[in-house]
Amino acid sequence: MYWKRYYLWVYCIVSLIIVTLDRLSKWLVVKYFSPGESVTVVPRVFLLTYVTNPGGAFGILARHRDQFVLLGVVLLVVIVAASFYLGKSSLALNLALAFLTGGILGNLVDRLHTGYVIDFLDFRVWPVFNLADTFICVGTALLAFMLLFPRGGRKGDESS
User: Which residue among 5, 77, 97, 155 has its CA within the 20 to 30 Å range from the CA of 104?
Assistant: First the structure.
């Protein structure tokens, strides 16, 4: 269809929006919070807590900045290539790849600029995380869903 040519634009714009939201949220946290400071949003459920994470998810491999930067760059190259090669296949795929791109770029900028990632979303039952982490998880879940439940496999979807 004609609108499929715009999927690449959707990918680029959504990625840019995600990076912008992530950077803005982290800038606001750094500007208005001291490291370790918390503000209750919903009592006993949700807080904004400024922490730094020099590692990966859950703080694993702390102080391995170079490896995380390399991994982020490699993943970005693979995802950007996938968006160009598979870009016209579906809007959902482009959104999933844009979520991953925006999230990875957001955390990569942190690692390159400060050597650690700024986290602030604190639900108390999970380690503190940020918007980039959220988009990485949502993008990964969307990709997993598309792989587990491909549209072409549904009854009545055959094109003749």
Answer: 5
